Amino acid sequence: MCSRTCVVANLTPTSSPPNFSYLCRLKITAQAQMLNRKKMPRIREVKNLVVPPPDVWYLSNGIPVYETNLGTQDILKLELVFFAGRPFERKKLASRSAAALMREGTRQHTSAELAEVIDYYGGSLSMPISMDMAGVQLHTLTKHFDKLLPLISEMLSEPLFPQEELDSFIVRNKARLQVDLTKNDFVAYRKFTELLYGSHHPYGYNSYAKTYEAITREDLVTHFQENYTSGNCMAFLSGRINDSARRLLDEQLGQAIPKGERKLVPNFEVNHLPKKLHEPIADTVQKAVRIGCHLFNRNHPDYNGMYVLNTILGGYFGSRLMTNIREEKGYTYNIYSAHETMLYGGYFYVGTEVGNEFVDKTVQEIYVEMEKLQQDLVDDDEMEMVKNYLLGTLLTNLDGPFNIAEVVKTFVSEGLELTAFEELATAIKNITAEEIRDLARKYFNKKDMWEVVV
Q1: Please, is 119 exposed, middle or buried when counting C-beta atoms within 10 Å of its C-beta (0-12, 13-18, 19+)?
Q2: Is residue 159 a contact partner of residue 82, using CB atoms and an 8 Å limit?
Q3: 61 near 259, Cβ under 8 Å?
Q4: 381: CB partners within 8 A, 6+ apart
Q5: CA distances (Å), 275 to each of 198, 291, 410, in order?
Q6: Rounded Cα gap, residues 214 and 232, in angstroms
Q7: Model pLDDT, residue 397
């Protein structure tokens, strides 16, 4: 049977079935002969970028559940988000260490037993961690949700944080850090964020061997008890969801996660005076470059415009930085710009690695491209290209229940309404070249940029 869908008209029933595979091949061949491969397909306008609103309900301990009940396959994704990242820790690396070791044993199961049960039922468990948030993410067949959710409940109510697992964690990460510190781009990123925020800021401090060695089991227990509470948690459930799954979620997590209030974050001082750092490393043929400045999070009124401006400069493969510095000058294989957002701030930076002899020229050309955006209007063809690219990207974010749930999580956890997604799409469609130039003049000033070359 042909795997493609084909329509065959006026087939008279016979005693033997028609050769559908042969008929499909004939139809496909005819269609291919009619195609003009020299003519680009028509670009269609992306419309109706609206996030399907989730159903919101609450567990018995007050945790909000954002439910995206869509899809055709009997699979579920449960993601729990805790505001338990760096801004909420008492000791450096406590958030990352606690998140990593939660799955390494409970009072009822060892880490090996947990892994074996999850693997037996075809589930997938991960513990994503970001600057601000720590998560628990479970993918499973709907019919096995009742087998795997109790394990999540155990992890969130009675993790052991075994000392031997902590010791192994410290050894592994010290070894990985030793390797990473030989990479120019890794060192440059560390130096850049440390300069930008300061070595004592949650977003700016770096890990060292002694930082790992200072972590104790008591630090992990304290961080867990203070932050893994109902007031610090949101749940996102997506896929094919039935009443049994809802009931089970409340029976397990509505009881396992203790009640608690949302933690307040203290104010942190931020370095405001731009600095330049050139740090030589012996016996290297390339240097890593980071150039950037303080910016803002998604709540800022200029975020949507900056989303477009950053894309034009270095946010996709056809960007100006790639066209100039990679394709025309040949100074580097890869160069990009990014706008990183966190709960309590954000920053913009350009990153690349270049041969030692091209460093000065590359830095110069980066500023040249910023200045062009400040002085000249982006032409219509480039604006249309970037808008279509970004709208297509947003469109893929709404493809399937898991992607939709990811969009919901991103906006809700950062304190935004889901209409912010629609507003972003509208801003992309309607932004003008004059607005792009004004934003470049506002945020791409050389005097405000930090520079790091390693």
Answers
A1: exposed
A2: no
A3: yes
A4: none
A5: 12, 10, 32
A6: 26
A7: 93
User: For residue 20, what pLDDT is reported?
Assistant: 54
Task: Return the residue matching tokens 């934003």.
Answer: 439
**H or E segment and range at residue 20:** helix 20-34
List of the chain residues with pLDDT < 50: 1-17
The residue type found at 13 is P
Say if residues 309 and 373 touch (Cβ distance below 8 Å).
yes
pLDDT for residue 2: 42
- Mean pLDDT of the chain, nearest integer: 90
Angle between helices 145-157 and 243-256 (to 10 degrees): 10
What pLDDT sits at residue 11? 40
> Is 405 buried (19+), middle (13-18) or exposed (0-12) by CB count in 10 A?
buried
Q: pLDDT per residue over 127-164, tens digit each?
A: 999 999 999 999 999 999 999 999 999 999 999 999 99
Q: Are the CB atoms for 63 and 234 separated by under 8 Å? A: yes
Contact 64, 235 (CB under 8 A): yes
Q: Which residue has the tokens 């040249």?
A: 368
* Distance (Å, whole) CA 80 – CA 236: 6
| DSSP sequence for 159-179 | B---HHHHHHHHHHHHHHHHH
* Beta bridge mates, 452: 277, 290
- Quick one: pLDDT at residue 5? 39
The pLDDT value recorded for residue 3 is 42
SS3 115: helix
Angle (deg, nearest 10), helices 433-443 and 359-375:
130
Domain architecture of the chain: domains with CATH: 1-41 (no CATH), 55-256 (3.30.830.10), 276-453 (3.30.830.10)
Query: Is the Cα dihedral 60, 227, 270, 275 positive or negative?
Result: negative
Q: What's the alpha-carbon Rg for the chain, to the nearest Å?
A: 26
Specify the pLDDT at position 29.
61
Neighbours of 434 (CB within 10 A): 10
Tell whether pTM > 0.70.
yes
**366 to 194, 205, 348, 356, 362: CA distances (angstroms):** 22, 27, 13, 16, 6
